[in-house]
Amino acid sequence: MILADKIILLRKKAGWSQEELADQLNVTRQSVSKWEGAQSIPDMDKILMMSKLFGVTTDYLLKDELEEEELISSEPVSEVHRIKLEDASKFLLTMKEVSPKLALGTFLCIISPITLLILAAISEVEKYKLNENAACGIGLIVLIVFVVLGVMNFVSSSIKTKEYEFLENQNFETEYGVIGMAKERKKEYKDTYQRLMTIGVVLCILSVIPLFVAICLDESDLIYSISVGLLLFIVACGVYFLVYGRVYQSALEKLLEEGDYSRKKKAKKGLVSLVTAVFWLATTAIYLFIILSNFVSNSKSWIIWPIAGVIFPIVIVIIESVEKKERKK
């Protein structure tokens, strides 16, 4: 058996298309096609990569006299999940059920600091006679309650979807009918998805209007704090629609291994998620430190949130750019 036939055999055993194997080896699909057609021979470094990828020896790949029954495994091939049509339907139904919970959880976490922002600003105004410690205490209690409620939604959703976690970061095979069903569902969901995304994006863009109005009407810290509270509330509404629509769309992309869930992107997904969690936890910690230590006036502490909102996408773009350069090396 020649090398070309062995590549075809091993690729089909793994359940990969030529394009998927090309992604694993960082080459084009045309290169894989030429290898399998015996029109060209892969470089030695690609032979080594295929040896590790398929769990075979380089001798097996390079020596024509070694047939399939003489294959010696150099590394155990990991078990590949197989998705049946019933499993795929159950998964999509589960994701449709948890999407409003995830959206609500995100909404609650975003609006959680609003009460603290406004009460801290009110405590700075003498005529309202609100004690600063009381304002911070009430605000923190409301913040914690909202965050706890949000986390409860995340946890309950996570429990329901735990058995499908492998779809996000592992390769899998689908049985007959799954891909066709997922493509049909995606087509049916297209208009709804676009509508939810449009509403979410428009609300996020319009969220800055209260802040601009506050700048035009009044320069008091209380007005600024209220405007930032409105900004956060409108952003939370926008994000609610974005998350609500995106969860089901993501479920379809997971089954089809498209977009953010293509085999090429699964490898880097963990880092972006980690950075996201660390960034916003650090932002919240800094904000609480400012509030509790009186490092600056509480009424001015709101500025950390719009600043963090501007910095966050820049951080993600930098990470993705660095990872792209690393993959090209």
Distance between the termini: 33 Å
| Helix proportion | over 70%
Tell me the series of helices and strands, N- to C-terminal. HHHHHEHHHHEHHHHH
Radius of gyration: 26 Å
Q: Which strand order does the major sheet show?
A: 1-2
Molecular structure report:
The protein has helices spanning 3-14, 18-25, 29-36, 44-54, 58-62, 85-111, 114-122, 132-161, 166-169, 178-206, 209-217, 221-256, 263-293, 304-328, and strands spanning 81-83, 172-174. A two-stranded parallel sheet has the order 1-2. It folds into 2 domains: 3-70, lambda repressor-like DNA-binding domains (434 Repressor (Amino-terminal Domain), Orthogonal Bundle), CATH 1.10.260.40; 85-261, no CATH class. It has 14 helices and 2 strands. The chain starts with a helix and ends with a helix. The protein has 329 residues and is an all-alpha fold.
